[in-house]
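Entry, Tuesday afternoon. Goal for today is a structural model of the target with flavin-adenine dinucleotide bound, before we commit to ordering more compound. Inputs were pasted exactly as handed over by J.K., no edits. I checked the ligand SMILES twice against the vendor sheet because last time a stereocentre got dropped in transcription.
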Amino acid sequence: MKPPVLTDGDLALRPAGTAPGPWLREALADEGDPPAHLPLTGGTDADVAIVGGGYTGLWTAYRLLESDPELRVVLVEMDVCGSGPSGRNGGFVNAWWDELGLLRELFGGDRALACAREVASSVAEIGAWCERYAIDAHYRRGGMLTVSTTPLHDGAWRGSTRAARELEVPDSYREMDAGEVAQRCRSPVFRSGALMADAATIHPARLARGLRAVCAARGALIHERTRVRSLRREGSAVRLLTESENGAGEVRAGQVVLATNAWSAGWRPFRRSLVTWSSWMVRTDPIPDLIEERLGWTGGESIIDARFTVHYFHVTADGRIAFGAGGGRPGYGGRIGRSFVDDLAAGRRAAVGFRRIFPQLADVPLTDMWGGPIDVSADHLPRFGTLPGGRVHFGFGYSGNGVAPSHLGGRILAALALGSDEPITRLPIVGAVPHRFPPEPLRYPGARVLREALVRREDGEEEGRRAGWALRQLTRLPRRLGFHLGPES
Ligand SMILES: Cc1cc2nc3c(=O)[nH]c(=O)nc-3n(C[C@H](O)[C@H](O)[C@H](O)COP(=O)(O)OP(=O)(O)OC[C@H]3O[C@@H](n4cnc5c(N)ncnc54)[C@H](O)[C@@H]3O)c2cc1C
């Protein structure tokens, strides 16, 4: 198949840059563009201080206050809540049944099932929570379809569908032939696939902003536009030193939760645990009739292809297609610079993916392009835990798949901060800081070379060209070195 052609409109499209992405703009407009919560100035005390106002930090605050409404919970966010990936993601709320093969390999069958069941509960609980608090985050439970778009990717899901059958949860992730896939959504490049029922879609920023509102109403003290510069242990407390345009501040807290996602890579204990990467999205105008007529895509399924540099897409509540591409670029030394939100070449990859998968919509313009950082861990699963000393807890490593897992993460982190021993704190994703990636200056050039190789290989595969021996060896290098990243063969 020929590479797709970008339209003049696509070529004129520019990244949102540091301005809020379209989801956050919409959510803020719905709220009447409220001012940010006041920055922190001076000192304040907290039972638990949370750094980061994305889903992980906000779910943690919510769970803490649910367990004990009297707790003093202070949440510090360097921008506004939902300005990070929690307010700019692809809106997929997935369980981990498509990861069951990996989970079984890493943790064994029973513990794999325990993890997958918890994330599946989170998918359902996010919907129930939105209903309970009347948060209109456009939650829609339509399942998630993994599709092959080249014969070379057929059956990429088999490790997990086989694990699902062998662990006696065959319906959690089941294979579909090309006819069944086409009944759900038509694309000339779709082949066979697999369906995960435990999956929903949301408006990402409406969920983040809804969480912010509920946490504030329950008594969380939220300080926005306040950056935490450093932590200092002092006796039985931890001091968080902050800065904002109003000057320095300080939180003295008994317990601290670091919910800083990709920014965790800039904190010394976690530097070797993450590679920061960018992920990019585009979206169309509302075109509900065309989606129904030309694609027959009416069931609310979110869809991903089987690339490692994945394409992911869903239909929004107002009938747009939101379309993402995971093959962005790595960052140096954990820094998250401007290229994470302002990288035309990476953004255009999402547009190219859209044009290739949906040539039936060649006349439909793309209206927005935006990007954000993801936190890639060595096995692309998140980890939660506590630093030595017992007062600072962390959660990161979602690897671009954190909407449902961050709900579980909030439950785990609240339990760790409260010192509560629960089945979820015994999951195998809870424990020590994962130390795996090589240090800089090796990591960044390695990640760059690998990224270029992966994109070249997978772009070629989409055009029906099997990668040559050297390219295959290069893209399999992470697996050879013991990372669970990149193609297996
Ligand atoms: C383009 C894109 C598409 C994605 N699509 C999906 C998807 O469809 N489904 C899915 O499951 N996942 C997706 N993800 C990943 C998902 O968005 C994240 O895993 C999830 O939002 C993580 O939530 P979080 O709260 O841990 O992190 P974040 O939302 O990043 O929140 C962390 C917050 O910490 C703040 N912060 C950082 N450092 C400091 C500091 N020093 N002081 C104060 N505040 C600080 C940041 O400003 C940020 O708001 C996507 C990500 C991107 C970028």
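The mean pLDDT is 96.
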